Structure formats: C-alpha cells, structure tokens
Amino acid sequence: TSQGHSYSSLARVVCVCGMGRTVLLGLWVVFLVLALCLPGRAQEGCDEPASGWAMDEMEALKTRHQQRMQGLEEEEKNEEEEKREEKEEERREEEIEEEEREERKEEEHKEKEEEQTKEKEEGEEQHRRTASHTTEEEGEKAPVPTASPSAVPMYPANPIKPVKPSEPAKVVNASTEPMQACPQNATQLLKALEKLLLKKHRQVREALEEAEEGKCDPEIYMDECEEEEEPPPIVEEGELGPFHPDWQHMNVFIVPHTHDGALSSYGKVAAICSSVVDTLSHNKKRTFNWAQIGPFASWYAIQNNTRRDQVKKLVTEGQLEFVEGGWVMPDETVVNLPGLVNQMTVGHDFLLKHFGVRPRIGWQVDSFGSVGATASLFAQFGFDALVNNRIEFDLKDLYKQQQHLEFVWRGSRTLGKDTEIFTHTLDSHFSSPVGFDFEGDSKVNAPITDDNVRDRADIFAEECHKRGAWFRTPNLLVPFGGVSRFVNAETMFANMDKLLAFVNANKDRYNITIKYATASEYFDAVHNANKVWPVFEGDFLPYATDADSYWTGLYSSRPALKGFSRMQDAVQRSAETAYVLARTLRRSHSKEEKWIQNFGSLRTGRTVQGLVQNYDAITGVSGRDVVKDYTRIVREATATAATVLEDSVSLLLAPDGDRVPQLTVYANATLGPIVDTVPVVVYNPLGWERTRYVWLVITQQSDLHVTDASGRPVTAQLIPLVGSDTCKLFFEVHVPALGAATYFVHAGTSDYPARLAESERIETYCDGEGEEEFSIENALLRLSFEANTGLIKNVHDKRTGRDTPVIQRFRNYHATAREAYNVFRPEGPASLLSNETSVVYVHRGPLVQEVKQVFLAKQLNHTIRLYHGPEPMGLLIEVVHEVGPMSTDTQLVTTWATSWPTMGVFYTDNGQEMRARLRDPHVPDRPIAANVFPHITTSYVEHTSQRLTVLSRQSMAASSQVDGALEFMLQRNLAGDDNSDTTWMSIPFLLMVGTSQESDTHRHRAMMEHNFPLMKLVGAETTIHDWVRSYNLTFAPVAEALPDTVDLLTLQMRDKDTEDVYVRLAHLAEAGEDVPALATVHLPGIFGGARVTAVREKTLSMNTDKSTLDRLAWRSYATPKDRIHAKRQSVDLSSLTDIQLGPQQIRSFVLELSSPALSVSSTAEEDVDPMREAIRQLYNVFDADHDGMLVKDEVRNLLRTVDPEVQWTDAMLDHTFRYLDADASGGVSFDELWDLYEANGEFRTDEDKRRFVESTFRTFDTDSDGYLNVNEVIEMLRQLEGDVTPDEEIIRMIVNFADTDGDGLLDPDEFFTAYEHVEEEEDQPNTHVASHAEIGPAEAKGMRARLEERKLFATTGARLHLRMALDQIVSHVH
Prior knowledge:
The chain is 36% helix and 21% strand. The strands form twelve sheets. It has a ten-stranded antiparallel beta sheet.
C-alpha cells in the first residue's frame, strides 16, 4: 500500500488462498473487510478512489451475507438463550481451572526457564567462537517484523501480513491507472485486515480439519450442519492419569543424529562412528541417521571386513539410515550448480558402491539460508522430502503460528511441479531438546534415573505437545543429537531409553507414543496422514537469528577461498573432459598404470571440490587456520588436476605412443625472452566452438609474431605492464568444442609483427583537478571515464546511438565491534573512499583497449577492457579488480549505478535461476544487512527494456541500496573473529549494458565462458618444423556442437574399472526468455570417432535409473486431488540418442563408449605393406581430429594442400567427397582412400561406376529437383573447364542427345546411360540415341569426342588427378 497498490490489486494478492472453499472464504473475508473499511477511508480524505469492480462485488457480497446471517440468527436465537446461562457457568469454571493450571505450569517451569536463559548466554558465546556450531536455544520471541520477501506461500496466502510477491517488479504497478498513496488510512486498513485474517485463518484451519472428518462449521461455510454429540469426558485412572486432558494423542519420532561439521576432528568422527555402530548392534530398537559421507567414508575405509559387514547389516535392517548422503552438507547461498551436484554425486556413488542404497531424505539443517535451487535439485536427486532449519527468525515464528513449518516447496518457477519437494522446517534447531542432551552440561542435562524419570517425562511431554501444535499431523520429529554428539552413544541412548519406556508405559497420561526413528519413517507417517499442504515458491533469504543479526556477511567473507574454489572447478572440469576423450580415443598411447593414476588424481579432486562446498568452508565462517588449510588443499587439488590435463591434452595431440608432446598448464608465469618458437596449445572444456582473445605475460621484445596451426599469421597486440619490463601478448584463437588448437609465438622478422599498444598516463584527483575526460572504444561500444576519478561514467551503444550513464564508485562499510565473518552489522551506509589519488593508464590497440587504474594509497587496482570483435564479444565489458590486504574493519564494495527508477527491485541468481530481490519498503528501518543477497554468478537491474547485467567468477554479497544501482562486496577485513584476510586476489567481472533481450540471449553462454575459461598449455621452446613434423596440431572430437543454450554440465569417467561415462546436459535458459521451447542434442555427435554402445538415463546424482525412480507424491493446495500414492515415473528410452531439453531442464546419462580402431598394423614384418603404411601416415596427417574419418573440410585441406595449383572449386570438392565417401557415412575412412589408390584410376565394379556418375549428378543438381537442366549443365562445364566459356549450342546438343524421354531435362538414369554410351568405342554407332536426337552417327561421334575433350565424363580426369596427388604425397612422406 505504501507504493500505491489499488485495493482491487490488494484483494487479488491477499486472496490467493488455495482451492475450493478456501478460495471462496478468502474472497469473502477480504471483501467484507474492504466493505467495512473503505467508507472510513474515504472520510479520512484519501484521494485515491476505490476500484469500481471491487465496490460492486463488495456490496453484492455484503447484501447476501447480511441476508444469510439474519436467517441464521433467527433459527439459533431461542437455542442460544436457553444455553446461555449454562455456558456462562461452565465458562467461569473453565477459567478458574485454567488459571490454576497456568499457575502450576509457571511454577514447574520457572527453574527450566532460568536454565534456558543461562544456556542461551553460554551458547551465544560459544557460537561466536566456534563459527555457529553450537545449539541455538529459543528465548523470548522478539516482535514479529515483516517476513522475508523471498519466501512467501503461494497457497494459502499469508494471513498475517500482506503477501510480498515473488516477482516484485510486476506487482509494484499492478494497476495501469495512476494511483496516489494514502499511508495513514492504508496502515489502519492493513491492521484491521491482519486481525480479521488471523482470526479467520484459525477458523479455516479448524474447518478444514473437521471437513476431513466429515464435519463442517456453519459460521464459516454458512451451510446447515448436523449436530454431533459431545465426546464423553476423560476419566482419570489412578495416580498417573492424563497430564493434560486436552492434549491430542501424538506420535513422537526421536531422530538420533550427529552433526559433524568442518571443525570436527577425524578422531572425534571415528569415535562417533564406532560408538554408534556398537550400540545399534546391541539394541535393535535404536536407530541412527548419518548425513555427511566424507567423514564417514574416511572411517569406513580403514575398517576390517567384520566391521564393514556389521555396518552393512545395520543399513540393510533399517537401523542406520544415510540422510542426504552428499560428501558434505553444502551451503546453499554461495555454492554454484556444478559444485553442489558434484559433491552429491561423489557421496551417492560411495553409498551405492558400498551399501547399494539411495538416500530418500535431504538433510540441510545447518545451511545459512535456504534457496529454491536446493528444492529443485533435491527433487531431481530423487529425494522424497527435505529437512531444513535456518530461515529468518520472525518467519519461523510466523510459520509456527500458521502451522506452515511443513509445506511443499516448488524450487523452480520455470520447471514448476517437477521441482516440488515436501519440506519440514525444524521448529527448534537441530539439537536435542533442552535438558535432554546427555553429553552436554550435566547441570542442565541431568541423567535420567528412576527417581526423576516422571518429572523429566512431564517436561519432555510438555515440550512435545507445545511443538506438536505447530504441525498439521499428529506426528512430531524431535532431533536427538547435535554438534559432535554420540561420542559415547551408549550414554545418549541409555538415558533416552528410560524416558521412552516411561512415556510409552503411561500413554494415557501423556497422550504420546514415542520411538526411535529414521527420517524416512517420520516422513512416511506424515505422508500417510494424507493432508493437503501449502505450496511455497522462492528463496528463504536472508537468514537472521534476530533483528540485528543478519547472516549476510558470509556471502563475501574469505573472498580468496571463494575464488580459489571456482578456479579449481574450472581446471577440474577441463581435466575431466580431456581425460574422458584421451582414455576413449588414445587408450593405447599410454600405459594402464598411468590411466589409473590419473583417475585417482581426478577422484581426489572431486572429493576436495565437494569438501569445500561445506557450509563451514565456502562461506568463510571458519577460523583463519582452518581457512588456510582449506585453501592449501584446494590449491594442491588444482595443481593435481592441471597435471592430468597436461597428460590428457598431450595424448590427444600425439600421433602415437612414442611421440607425445610435453605441455605445461600456463599459470601466468613470464615467458621469454624467446629465441625461436614457443608452441601454445589452447584447450576448450565447453561444448561450443569458441573464438576469444587469450594473453600471455612475456618479456618485451620487438620481433614477436604469432601464427596458427596452418602457418597463417595471427594479429597480435602487446600491452606493457606497469613498472615492469614485461607485457601482455594478446591474440585471437579459435578452438573447437571440447577440442584443442595450436598456436606459435615466434621471435624473428615478420610482415605481421605484434603491435605495441599506444599508451597514455593520466593522474586523477578526487578534488576535481584531473585532466579532461577520456574514452576507449570498439566497433560496438564507447566507454567514457570521469576526469577527476578515472572511473567509468557512460556507455554509448554505437548501433543505436543510445547513451546509458553507468557510474562506478568504490565505498567502504565501517564494521562495528560486534560484527563477525557471518554477520554483517555495519555502523551505517557505506562511505566513499575519499582523497584517493590514482594513476590511470590508457592503452589502445587493434585488438584490445583498456583502462588500468592504480590507487596509490590503497591496495586496490582495477582494469576495464574492451575487445574488438562481433557480438557478443564486442558487447562484453571486462572488469578486473585486484584487491590486496585492506585496513582493519574495512568492508570494500564497488557499485555501478544507473539513473533508472527500479522501485527497490534488483535480481540475483540462486545458483540456478534469477530471483527478484526487493529492498523492503514495508519496514523503513530494516537494517542495511537485511537488503543484502547472495550473488553466485549473475545480477542485474533493469528498467523498461534496458538492463545492466553483471557476471562474476565467484560468489559475493550483492545489494541495491539505491534505485538503479548494483553493489558488490569485494573484501572484508574484520578485527574480530581472527578474520584478517591478507590475500591478494583478482576478481574478474563481465558487464553488459543493453536491452533485456540481448542480455537473455548472451548472458548464459557468456557466464559459462567466463567461469570456465580457455586453458592455455605451453610447450618447450623449439623450432616450428620439429613441432609440426612430430605432433598433431588440432583436435576436434565434437561432430555437432551443442546449442547455445545447452551446457555440457558433466563429462567424466565413472570409475577406473569401467568404460562408463557420466554425461549431464543442462538447458541454461529460463521461462519467459526468447529462446526455442526445446533444444536438441545428438548424443553420439559429442564423441566424434568413439561409438556410443549404451545409454541409460539417470537421476541427477546418477544413482538410480530414471525409469525405476519412485518418489512420494504430496497433495497440495496447488493440485488438490484424492490421496496420491507413490507413482513410478516412466521414461521413454527409445530415442535417447537425440536428447531434447526445455528451459532449466537437466538430464543425466550413463554412457558406454567403445574406442575406434584408428590404426591397424601387423606385428609381423612380412605382412606390412610399405605403401599402405605410407598412405596411412598421409591419412593421419589430414585427420585433424583423429576420429578415424576425414570429414569434408579435412578432404578439402588434403586436396588443396597436395596440389595448390589446381583450382579446386566447391563443386569439384563436393563431387570428390561424395565419391570417396562410398558408404555415405559423412566421412572418408582410410579403407575408402586406400581402395581409390589401388583402383589406379579405374572403376572396380559397375556399382562403383554408377556411384561416381550419381555423385557428379548430385553435385550439379543445384536446385535438388532430381534433374539437370540446361543452366545446370552450363555450370557443370564451367566448373570443370575453368576459364573456357561453354558453347551453348553444344550444351543443347548434349541435353538432346541424352534426353531419351524428350522433356528437356536429364534424370539420373538418362545421365548414366549417356555416360555409358560415351564410354563405348568411337567406331560403334549408337543408332538409338542418334535417331532420337535426330542427328547422324557422324555428329554423335564428333560430340562424344568434344565431351571427352572437356572431361565431362572422363575417368582419367579428376579421379586420376587425385591419384597423381596421392603419389606426390607418398613420395614426400618417403
């Protein structure tokens, strides 16, 4: 209402209450309130008129309601008068009894509350020192502020507060008419509406429950209902009668678990594992739930077979359940999609291999916020349900009141129902109830004895029933455990055993049945209750424990670790893809031990990659020493993966196992000075061809130039590095999908030397004394910079002439003493970096133009760079921030601000989809930290059709503190919590300024290429002759590149013992973007010469065949039906070679590949044909991608290279290729080339002859109508005769001569018949043809001679010319 929503729009928003009667009731309530409130609103002088539609509806509903209520009142009046006195007396008695019960309850729990308060204080202190691993206890609840704008129920609508839309930008201006704000009256209306909605919501909830039991409420539904007899009174039996007679019977599921975080030592984890296994084996009633597989796998690896069998038995019998089963419990707010999927796959692989189980339940109890991508991916992992915990404190309190702690979570707005998962939010954190943590402080958690068991059971039952009121079924999940609990499992279980036994023996007293359970048992019970659940869509962000503690600082804490993690992702992915291709296509080139060793290195890299996704690692909330350890193992794993990449790419370029180049992954080291030639191999880990600029740091010298694999010069540019005798050498490369290309950096004279960029130096001062404005540009954009700051100020689009002001600034948030690495709690708004003198260096050249700014008083440099090239490369603005150790309590941010009125709305991604974020206007005093959200790869602001898009290579905090601006936190250096991050780091961004459509078209692929850059590998300095003679120069395995919207998310070997390959394809686009509805991928086309022998579609973590997946289906307000049982999803496996994907869809496959036989040679010397081997070497030279086939471009290179004097036209090349490709497979095999050589220019069979003639016919049938007309024959002669102009009279005679049916066209049979006649002896007259053409034998004989002279049908023409070319190549090879 503060932004001018019309009341009709408010009604539409608030009334999204579900389906059926709930919708009608919601409409009735809202319109009733509006009818009552609008007159007062008008009297108070609001200028905004009510919607006519709303007024008409309200008046009609009000009239019908009044008529109905009058009838009901008359019918009930007499009965109410008779019962009034009796009810009044009963009410007074109940009030007295209630007061007595409350007094007793207050006395019994007074000591408990004191203990809770003390424990909370201790817990907060411990929590600060141990990075949020201690138990969060519930104290007195703070007043409930506005709920998080990103986690709003779709069905039913929030009855407490106005619903905040998941797409705020679309709701802000819901009405097309101009509206005026009326804050005072709107607030009064809102308060009245909240009160009535709260009352009505409770009635609705009760009515729905009664309706399921066949009851109804006439006050709510205004229907006649049958009266039911009152239930009989509860009779107390004996001393232990009902503790609280009004309690409903509950099923309490005690879920034992441990929370082994990153701070848990291996020794403690091992003690927990051993202790739990022993105690479960001794008591079949006990259960346990284990989440993180990484620590468990370390313990399991060193156990003997007896111990392993013991564990397997517990798993088989259902006592030990693995929940979630990822390698770690990942964070959700700063983890990217590949990292999350990888760590889950590693954990699920372990469980499937060792226990044959698939986890059913997700267990995200300690992630610092929850995002919709988790729900989406967990549904695709095949989970039946999800447990989460950390959502905003006031939102959790709200959901308790509404019984919304369990709901169906729709993770993706694009995929919709396919990404729904039933979700349970823990009501009171993941630790044991207060007083029942038997490894905690014994003063608070006294052991249970025969003397105190009744009192302890009373307290426990009271707590259970309090929690039970927050849920919709009579089932309650009670966590039993906590951080590093169950080191002494027998102590934990023995105490709880006594409590369980006592409560179960006194069910009539407590109305509770209690048992140990696995998480799956609990969710099966909830599912069997057959309830209808609300549906939520969105993210639960940001996370806060109180109104002053928003955990948004962790989005940017330890930025160096976040950057190193993404660097490892890039190198690991490159190594994985290259290893698959090398192992499949070059298996014989290396020893088996080497393949096994390299797979072990990749496997280690996967586990490290998974480990760092832990909620305590990638978030940066661990202590300094722990972060250093994480950083060390990440960098070691990156180096190991680089070694595998070097080995694999070297093998891909090796002609055989004896000639393997030695390559080293380039790590920004300075090259030179160069004397001769340095080979640079560029590898592309993505499924698209890529044309991009790469650079090398090299010693400055004036005689450098670059050539490609064919020896052609490549334009290059040098940009000097400040304060150094080195420079960056830029040059453009073109690299095949999943392939490699070789380039050479030479020293020596050349007609195309690398050009040194023109440079100028500019000093800037914040006092405005800088020089004139300056700019850089390419063919598409011009960037203007301020004179006094040296920062960007405007982007000019040369295509449209549009100027977009984009002003960059650096600011600092001063940290408070209470700020921590997880909590962002600044003193106030960010302040500009003042009095900052800087030096700006401007470089302009033919390839790159850049502005580099060095701040003299700060550890801060940044570079803005434009590349020359077509779209999209020419539209991307590259920005690189180099940040060093900042002063203490500095929180450095950079902002890019436009002038757009964005109404507080901006967008960031949640790892999978873009989400609208709202700078909350409903609570003006909402802290700055509450308006900060995670940016994983992409953010943007937009206005009308214009958009500013920012892409990054690492996660960080993002916000829009003012309209039209994007703000990113680059570095945090806090005095508290030993969080001094002193690492120099480079943080690269890409900016796009243009239309929303351009952004949607280009940003997905640009984001992938930014996060997974081309990998440069450098060989030792050599001569170009030696390198070209020894190694292959290119490798191009992909026959069909992927669509621009489809990413090859995964290409990796499953394990070292099989040839199974994991393949995941991900459609990057989202709903509403201007892209084709479906993208198609031809799966065998990805692997070139390798043959796909089997395809199986899997769940996202590869542990279950998609065709056999069973998931629990849950009823919801979105899809109300009769009870839904588990359904088996069916998948059509008939056409899996052609994969179709819709927006945001991920499909996962296990492929079996067989290696092609690229070379066949006999070990017996007498069986070797030297000529055949020479031709094979020739073949391998031109088989650039080494897939065992010469495609058209490779045949083209062969023909043009062996005899460049011949003018090989496109038609001649097509004709030759078709003829060589005897089996029409789309490629020429070695055997086909060898058969041509052996034929010596002659046809070996009639079929061979006919195929040659048909190839000629198809080549020149340019309109593909199946006939040759006169014009096509003219073109045929022109192509074959070169400069000779065809004689049209002769051409018409040719057509008449061959045209046996007289239609003026030649069909294939006529063309072939004519060829055979021309081939006959000259002295044999063809009377049939002659008579038909009405020419004599002499004319026919002369025409045949002229045709042969023109080599139209000559077998000794093109065929023998190719034979002669082959002879020349063979001589050259020899």
